[in-house]
Write a structure and sequence with these properties.
Number of strands: 0
Shape: elongated
Number of helices: 6
Oligomer: single chain
Structural class: mainly alpha
Strand content: under 5%
Helix content: over 70%
């Protein structure tokens, strides 16, 4: 049993020294990737709609967001950044009203972006059929989103329990062979 403890500590050390930094690197790369995509979206928005007076179509701005591979919540952040940039630079080429209107539409869309893709099409069809201010439809979307969050939480727990099971199995096998079993 004496030789088993260093082996277990070595395994834990390897996991901590190699796996954790790789995970951390992935998180950092994800942050910079989102920032780069938001920047790309802002540049495309400025080039497309600078100097346009009047209202903008949500679908036009959404197509720019899709091309820049920006999620709705990231588009809201990018539009916030554009609005503050417009104020700081006193840039009148971007319409404040159009920007706020598009930003509001992206805010609504971002609330429900975590709905699974197989249900999103059905919800969009229901949006076309029922009136725009239908509270029941928004409640349905919120319930579906809550179910999706719960599913993600269970997936996370399942991964943690799998890791605990693997660690326990390794501990048992090493203990068995460590005792001359």
């Amino acid at each position: 049993m004496e030789s088993f403890t260093p082996v277990l500590l070595t395994i834990c050390l390897v996991i901590f020294v190699f796996v954790f930094p790789v995970y951390l690197l992935g998180v950092i790369v994800n942050i910079f990737e989102k920032k780069y995509r938001r920047s790309k979206f802002k540049v495309s928005y400025m080039l497309s709609f600078s100097g346009v007076k009047g209202s903008l179509a949500y679908k036009d701005v959404e197509s720019i967001a899709i091309k820049a591979r920006v999620s709705n919540s990231q588009a809201v952040i990018a539009l916030d950044e554009l609005n503050s940039q417009r104020i700081e630079e006193k840039n009148e080429s971007i319409s404040k009203d159009a920007l706020e209107k598009i930003q509001g539409q992206f805010r609504v869309a971002s609330k429900f972006e975590k709905i699974p893709g197989n249900l999103k099409g059905h919800i969009d069809k229901l949006k076309v059929i029922v009136p725009e201010d239908n509270v029941d439809l928004f409640k349905l979307e919120e319930e579906i989103q809550e179910i999706s969050k719960t599913k993600q939480k269970y997936k996370y727990y399942s991964v943690l329990l799998s890791l605990a099971t693997i660690t326990g199995t390794i501990y048992t096998v090493l203990g068995y062979y460590g005792n001359g079993g």
